[in-house]
TrEMBL record:
Taxonomic source organism: Rhizobium pisi
KW NADP (keyword) present: no
UniProt protein name: Homocysteine S-methyltransferase
Lineage: Bacteria, Pseudomonadati, Pseudomonadota, Alphaproteobacteria, Hyphomicrobiales
Domain Hcy-binding: 1-300
Cofactor(s) annotated in UniProt: Zn(2+)
Amino acid sequence: MSTMRILDGGMSRELLRLGAELKQPEWSALALMHSPHIVRRVHEEFIAAGSEVITTNSYALVPFHIGEDRFQQEGAELIRLAGRLAREAADAVADRKVVVAGSLPPIFGSYEPQNFQPSQVQDYLKVLVENLDPFVDIWLGETLSLIAEGEAVRRAVVASGKPFWISFTLADDEAAIRGGEPKLRSGESVEDAASWAASSGAEAFLFNCSKPEVMRAAVETAARVFRKADAQIEIGVYANAFEGETGEAAANEGLHDTRDDLNDDAYSRFACSWAGAGATIIGGCCGIGAAHIHRLRNTLLG
């Protein structure tokens, strides 16, 4: 049986809490440009809270957020900085190993599977992979909305020889919360995504940046597919704390409000449910901070 591993939480609101400027469209990339020391502090706070895996602040380092010109001129340097800050924070821990995951985001926008461009995606992923590679232990393709985005990440990282994890974001509308078949935001089924993952070579298959209420059904579906395929793939969850339906707006159209009811105790109860369904990698996404991670770590690991 796999040992439980604790991820970090969402970067952006922790940056805000510590005084960094965030505004759209650059979003968390602004902190790398203007206050990288705060990025390092966020990594350190998550580690102190119990995170065993921290994720590079490279999610917004794509033309979708920083623009094509800036990506071409400054992208490589900013990506290396994101990798270095995470690596330094991890290496400063003397009593345990902290793993650095290289964030590979949806290149053409979060929750926007219709914008995926297969002919161009590798050009952008290559820049991220080449410049993060010296600093990361594993790859994390995250907030992916369609299976083709997962396959693009697999292709981009396979030559590195490092393990890779794939994380999809789920439809989390009222129908999904009421117990409909778990689906990606593209409309593809979690069952089909898990079947793809079973033969992809991925070390872990995760769900992120969706409401916690829809995660357990997805975990159960993935676990069933993997048992049937005899696939030894870990399952993970890191939900967000967004109000409303997160698929209603593009990722750079504003700041989602976060839920008042999803405190650290409530989130840890969800985490226990996911663990009970078979998840062995658990953390948080947007709006889930260091206090949430501290509580779920203590709840899950004692």
